[in-house]
Amino acid sequence: MSALRAVVLVSGGLDSATALAIARARGLECYALSVAYGQRHEAELAAAARVAAALGAREHRVMQVDLAGIGGSALTDRSIAVPEAPSAGIPVTYVPARNTILLSLALAWAEVLGAQRIFVGVNALDYSGYPDCRPEYIESFARLARLATKAGVEGTACDIEAPLIAWSKERIIREGVALGVDYGMTVSCYQADADGRACGKCDSCRLRRAGFEAAGIADPTRYQ
User: Fold this and answer.
1) Could you list the residue range(s) of the whole structural domain that residue 177 is in?
2) Is residue 220 part of a domain?
3) Nearest-angstrom CA–CA distance, 182 and 174
4) Which CATH number belongs to the domain containing residue 185 in this structure?
5) Residue 2 to residue 27: CA distance in whole angstroms
6) Residues contacting 163, CB < 8 A, separation 6+
7) CA 81/CA 198 separation, integer angstroms
């Protein structure tokens, strides 16, 4: 009997690497999907390739979407500075509708593959307050998947899995290390340089560093 298939959204960051490791540990045949959407931190795409290879993805595919053409985010518009201090509300690093677009691409590929699962490493605890990282968002997208696809209408819609959604960064790191994830190959920084070295100042860097400190695990991040 062939293994169940999963499409895993892999950004190259810490959380998506952990999500891929969890999917593999559950015995799923994993297909890693990354999206080049015009992000300023392009080093994450090279990291995604490393993660997919190291964690045994059956295939790694990179798709292109021009979200930089829309702008509206510090991650896609270089004229908007990436915040280096905590701020109130949803930060300017929020990319309009990004997770909806990425999940839609994963959903389309899952239909073609006949995959039964989509894994995404979103987190609603140690995160920056993005609206598309909440449990109710994932639940709503799962309902959409059942309504808007041939597989869903025929009763074989894939499930949307967000295993990290209620975990602290400390727990994510501990679980990933237990599964053999080398976080030194990941890139989480919003403004990493071309070599993948982190700024150490943005929201993502602060959350990542605090997670390693809380877990009592040496931070393997390369800083600028």
Assistant:
1) 5-215
2) no
3) 11
4) 3.40.50.620
5) 11
6) 19, 22, 119
7) 16
Q: Look at residue 224 and tell me if it is in a domain.
A: no
| Domain count for the chain | 1
Q: In this structure, how many other beta carbons lie within 10 angstroms of the beta carbon of residue 178? A: 10
Phi, psi (degrees; rounded to nearest 5) at 172: -55, -45
What does the CA dihedral 113, 116, 188, 164 come to, rounded to 10 degrees? 180
**Residue type for position 192:** A
Position 157 in a domain:
yes
Q: What is the dihedral of CA 215, 172, 177, 102, to 10 degrees?
A: -150
Could you tell me the two tokens for 5? Answer: 């298939």
For 62-80, the three-class secondary structure string (H helix, E strand, C coil) is EEECCCCCCCCCCCCCCCC
Q: Is residue 223 part of a domain?
A: no
3-state secondary structure of 173: helix
Task: Give pLDDT tens digits along the chain (224 positions).
Answer: 568 999 999 999 999 999 999 999 999 999 999 999 999 988 999 999 999 999 999 999 999 999 999 999 999 999 999 999 887 889 999 999 999 999 999 999 999 999 999 999 999 887 778 999 999 999 999 999 999 999 999 988 899 999 999 999 999 999 999 999 999 999 999 999 999 999 999 999 999 999 999 999 999 999 99
Q: Is 6 helix (H, G, I), strand (E, B) or coil?
A: strand
